[in-house]
Hints:
Rossmann fold; 24% strand; 11 helices; six-stranded parallel sheet; disordered C terminus; seven-stranded mixed sheet
Amino acid sequence: MRAAWYSRNGGPEVLQIVERDLRAPGPGEVRVRVVLSGVNPSDTRARRHTPVGVTGRIPHQDGAGFVDAVGAGVAGICTGDRVWLWEAAKRNEQGTAQEFVIVPAEHAVPLPTHVSMETGAALGVPVLTAHALLTRGSGSPTLRPGSLASSVVVVRGASGAVGHAALQLAAWAGARCIAITGSQTLDSALHAGAAQAVDRTDPDLVERVRAVGSADIVLTPDPSSTIGEDIQLLTPGGSLVVYASAGSDAVSVPIFEAMRANVAVHFAYVYTVTRAAKAQAVEDLSLALQAGALSVGADHGLPVRPFPLEAIAAAHRAVDDDQRGKVVIQISDLDGRTSGLIAAHTAAT
């Protein structure tokens, strides 16, 4: 089978397409024929910085496809089932950028038939992160319809995959969502579920947000640049949740302002969230998927950018360059072939 692989850290040029043996799943495992492999910023950071083992690494944690084989002792999942994958590469550096991937059965989650493979490949890291942010900010370990009712949630970075997922999840849970994003992506934020979208460069940003309501939760990927404004946006006792560091790792906090408002500051990193919290997140996300609350695509606020496996280096460059849209690698089409989706995308563009 074909796989993308690298044996040393570096730029996208270290990625190679190689042939690998196809093996059977072991006890408690399933083998999945990958249709789409999702590419996240953490995947490209790993390519640049995370030490590579002696056998090299097949990248990418996320994906979607069909169960191809089931190991001993696996219940509740069958050959042919549609699934989405999360943390596929965490235990053995064998990720979803290959034609077939073997994962623990609990990392292959049923994907409803009304949910696209593109959405399935876009779940994983971004949506699990969004769940961690919202539960950390709300103080509740679960998300359900109505669990954020009467809450105002402000999402910075709303044009990215995590911000997009946070808008959709928060809206599903009943929150009134306000997106802060660039002028070119205001409409996209509204498509994703924001009640209002505010240009991040607006000099009256704080007043515009407060006109909708003081925030119970603010999510930010760039606290070194925004923490002062973020504290102003929060209602007394509200929560600021940090999910990235787009600027400097050092943050200057207006301590008295934060104390006076009794705000809490949280941090969330999906790879170190507890197993129990991730299991709860998968359960909650399954409910949201069944309800049709999670979708990607231009009509839902996050365009999909497909690349063939042979162009994986270009896909990584697109993520490294912070180009907008959810980048996915097409490994096969719905019938197991490897050209249909890319040919259709090329013809359309």
